[in-house]
């Protein structure tokens, strides 16, 4: 909440880095109630920096919920669709939290920081919803299980998250961590996390360093307390000056994740869609996980019905064969009849042609299928292609 000059409060929220963004001349946008930088100058330049050098992002609007205790792994197995108890210490797993009917409440990442300590990171707009859902599910789990004590702590309001993404990300992070932590950085695998210390002018601070991201590039996310966020941002920005790093906003983040074929909640993922329709059936541990979990019965029925494979619709990638881009909610046509709808779409700065994600009837979801997008009354040709659109060279 923020207070206005009239003494009234608003629901507008600011991260601990808001002043840094304002000083840099950022254009702000509302995202889940947060005032977040949309761009600082050219969103195209920010996009290209991440693909070619490095970009610096404020992701502090994301949620952070800790599940701790001897029964934390078993609880998350019950609360989420994946087998989270199988995560090795220091590793991470992408998962979903679904409703009883199989609809997606949110997609999230779970880090196993220690044997009994798990960090659940939901999306910004769903952070409060996910935290409340986990509390409700813990009550049901505790009443029916003797797996051990579990405690939940929503640390979202006290935690900042800064990301460095791009080919030069590792070099930039190495420049700010202690020398004795360098091997931990270089040896960190994708979807893994390690605790390191960053050297700042006022001394060292502990940081949870994760090698994850949402851009299709190599990169790191750094979890830190709000009181150290500005100093961490400044240190990374200074370290990146010789590596082509520039601050990047949500506009570049969106175009980058679209090129990488990564879904966005509220666009590709929603309560109305199941994991199978979204192409995320592999995330649902129906075979590898014993016992019940929230949504299991509905998800078993959806899989048995062939949802997303032989029936209903499926999320696909579309490559534009013309020059005009399809946008969210534009109809997808086959021989003039609507067979789907675009969820995200824009010109690809990296590839040089329009790309889109869309739900289409499963019989039209095979790569190579020619479809049209209804661009305000004019049919524009597209072709179904394998995802991701863009894949970095390792």
From TrEMBL:
Family the entry assigns: Belongs to the GcvT family.
Catalytic activity: N(6)-[(R)-S(8)-aminomethyldihydrolipoyl]-L-lysyl-[protein] + (6S)-5,6,7,8-tetrahydrofolate = N(6)-[(R)-dihydrolipoyl]-L-lysyl-[protein] + (6R)-5,10-methylene-5,6,7,8-tetrahydrofolate + NH4(+)
Ranges for domain GCVT N-terminal: 17-287
Function, in words: The glycine cleavage system catalyzes the degradation of glycine.
Gene name linked to the record: gcvT
Record has Isomerase as a keyword: no
Assembly and binders: The glycine cleavage system is composed of four proteins: P, T, L and H.
Gene3D superfamilies: Aminomethyltransferase beta-barrel domains, Aminomethyltransferase fragment, Probable tRNA modification gtpase trme, domain 1
Coiled coil, from the record: none
Key word Transferase present: yes
Name of protein: Aminomethyltransferase
Pfam families found in the cross-reference section: GCV_T, GCV_T_C
This protein's UniProt keywords: Aminotransferase, Transferase
Transmembrane segments: none
Source species of the chain: Sinomonas flava
Start and end residues of each Aminomethyltransferase C-terminal domain: 314-391
UniProt xrefs under InterPro entries: GcvT, GcvT/YgfZ/DmdA, GcvT/YgfZ_C, GcvT_bac, GcvT_C, GCVT_N, TrmE/GcvT-like
EC numbers, comma separated: 2.1.2.10
């Amino acid at each position: 909440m923020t207070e206005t000059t009239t003494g009234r409060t608003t629901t507008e929220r600011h991260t601990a880095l808001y002043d840094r963004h304002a000083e840099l001349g950022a254009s702000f946008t509302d995202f889940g109630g947060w005032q977040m930088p949309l761009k600082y100058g050219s969103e195209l330049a920010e996009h290209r920096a991440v693909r070619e050098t490095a970009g610096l992002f404020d992701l502090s609007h994301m949620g952070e919920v800790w599940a701790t205790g001897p029964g934390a792994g078993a609880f998350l197995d019950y609360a989420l669709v994946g087998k989270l108890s199988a995560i090795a210490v220091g590793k991470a797993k992408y998962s979903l939290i679904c409703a009883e009917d199989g609809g997606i409440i949110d997609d999230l990442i779970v880090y196993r920081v220690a044997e009994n300590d798990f960090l659940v990171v939901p999306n910004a707009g769903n952070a409060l919803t996910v935290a409340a859902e986990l509390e409700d599910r813990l009550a049901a789990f505790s009443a029916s299980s003797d797996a051990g004590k579990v405690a939940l702590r929503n640390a979202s309001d006290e935690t900042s998250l800064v990301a460095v993404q791009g080919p030069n990300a590792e070099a930039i992070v190495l420049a700010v961590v202690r020398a004795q932590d360098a091997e931990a950085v270089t040896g960190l695998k994708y979807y893994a996390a390690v605790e390191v210390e960053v050297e700042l002018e006022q001394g060292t601070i502990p940081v949870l360093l994760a090698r994850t991201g949402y851009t299709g590039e190599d990169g790191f996310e750094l979890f830190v307390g709000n009181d150290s966020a500005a100093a961490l941002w400044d240190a990374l920005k200074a370290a990146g000056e010789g590596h082509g790093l520039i601050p990047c906003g949500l506009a570049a983040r969106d175009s980058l994740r679209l090129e990488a074929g990564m879904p966005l909640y509220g666009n590709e993922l929603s309560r109305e869609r199941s994991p199978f329709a979204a192409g995320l059936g592999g995330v649902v541990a129906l075979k590898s996980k014993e016992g019940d979990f929230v949504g299991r019965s509905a998800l078993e029925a959806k899989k048995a019905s062939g949802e997303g494979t032989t029936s209903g619709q499926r999320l696909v990638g579309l490559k534009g064969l013309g020059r005009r881009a399809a946008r969210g909610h534009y109809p997808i046509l086959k021989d003039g009849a609507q067979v789907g709808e675009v969820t995200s779409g824009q010109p690809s700065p990296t590839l040089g042609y329009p790309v889109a994600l869309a739900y289409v009837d499963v019989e039209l979801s095979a790569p190579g299928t020619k479809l049209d997008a209804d661009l305000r009354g004019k049919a524009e040709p597209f072709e179904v292609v394998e995802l991701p659109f863009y894949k970095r060279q390792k």
